[in-house]
Specification:
Helices cover 32% and strands 32% of the residues. By secondary structure, the protein is α+β, with helices and mostly antiparallel strands. A hairpin with a 3-residue loop joins β10 and β11. α1 packs across α7, α2 runs antiparallel to α3 and α2 packs across α4.
Length: 349
């Protein structure tokens, strides 16, 4: 289940390219899950043909649909079996659950008027572990069922209702859930109210987590400092601009963004670090269709989109949205996302 280095690099490139484009828009507090968007695009892309397929593969930094599906399968299986192994260890030793929880889920919701190719159903099931579920998009029960599916797979961190377009032919859903407990949890007795300064200069009182780590790792750059808080199996990366600098100043290019935020980049130092972090929970809803159109992706969002490997009926991506939530408190960080791609009736070309 080891993914290739090329796939890993492609995931990183997609994350920083799309993340930079999104965050540069300066729409306030924004969460974005590139991995959830990647899986939804990959599942759609494996049903595409012609220029549509070429655009999606280029966006995802992959050479072929076959390799894209194979690598997505390996990454899913890696997360799944690691979680299964941890649960088995806990049952055997009678301990509490340890480590990070990472769960990816996908599904394809199909209208009775859509004729999905058997080969695509098999590929979605076998390599994306995504069932094709029959649904009547004209019925309110469709949105209820989709919303419940999302809630169950995000530990109910996201439980918003879904209102699909009654004219949808197909909807592709992906969910991503993450929980990581801090390696060094914050003491609740040290959580104190203090002042947070907003981007416009206004101030807002909120609760701050407080902790001093004697031997912490950090990296300094021109106008910023980067450090990480470790969870059991991963890290949360923090960028602290120097006074007078804005986060937007560091989003000039994907390369600059990656240079700052990728823990494998740059020279790291060790020293005492004082952490003072707002305790927060932030939700975001965003239009990913506009994001990827601004990045030059056009064919799949037009009525002449080519998805002949998915269905013999003409289809196009009529909408693509993502909802996310991230919460940070004394014990750890929880994040969840869903990405939904709605496919409408296309035109013959």
């Amino acid at each position: 289940n080891q993914i290739s280095e090329e796939f890993r690099e492609g995931l990183d490139a997609f994350a920083f390219e799309s993340g930079t484009s999104l965050l540069r828009q300066g729409q306030g507090n924004v969460n974005y899950s590139p991995l959830s968007a990647y899986y939804a695009l990959a599942l759609a892309g494996c049903g595409a043909e012609g220029q549509t397929a070429s655009e999606i593969l280029a966006l995802l930094h992959m050479d072929s649909q076959e390799e894209l599906a194979a690598q997505c399968q390996k990454l899913y299986q890696w997360f799944y079996y690691v979680n299964q192994w941890k649960q088995g260890q806990n049952r055997y030793y009678g301990g509490e659950e340890e480590g990070d929880a990472i769960k990816i889920s996908s599904s394809v919701w199909v209208s009775e008027s859509a004729d999905i190719e058997k080969e695509y159903r098999d590929l979605a099931s076998r390599q994306f572990f995504a069932p094709c579920l029959s649904v009547d998009f004209k019925s309110p029960k469709a949105g209820e069922a989709m919303g419940e599916w999302i809630a169950q797979r995000t530990n109910r961190a996201i439980s918003a209702p879904i209102f699909p377009d009654p004219e949808n032919r197909v909807s592709i859903l992906n969910t991503l859930y993450f929980y990581g407990g801090w390696q060094n949890p914050f003491d609740e007795d040290n959580t104190k109210e203090d002042i947070f300064t907003l981007a416009g200069g206004e101030v807002s009182p909120c609760l701050f987590l407080n902790q001093t780590i004697e031997y912490g790792s950090f990296r300094k750059g021109e106008g910023f400092m980067v450090s990480c808080l470790g969870t059991a199996d991963s890290e949360l990366v923090f960028l602290l601009p120097e006074e007078g600098r804005r986060p937007e100043d560091f989003l000039e290019s994907p390369q600059i963004f990656e240079e700052m935020m990728n823990p494998e980049k740059g020279e790291w130092e060790t020293g005492e670090i004082t952490w003072k972090i707002p305790r927060f929970s932030v939700k975001s809803s965003m239009d990913l269709k506009s994001l990827f159109q601004a990045m030059g992706i056009q064919k799949m969002f037009g009525e002449t989109g080519e998805f002949g490997r998915l269905s013999r009926n003409p289809m196009w991506i009529s909408d693509m949205v993502q909802e996310t939530v991230i919460s940070v408190d004394e014990s750890g960080v929880e994040g969840a996302a869903y990405t939904m791609m709605a496919m409408g009736k296309g035109v013959m070309i």
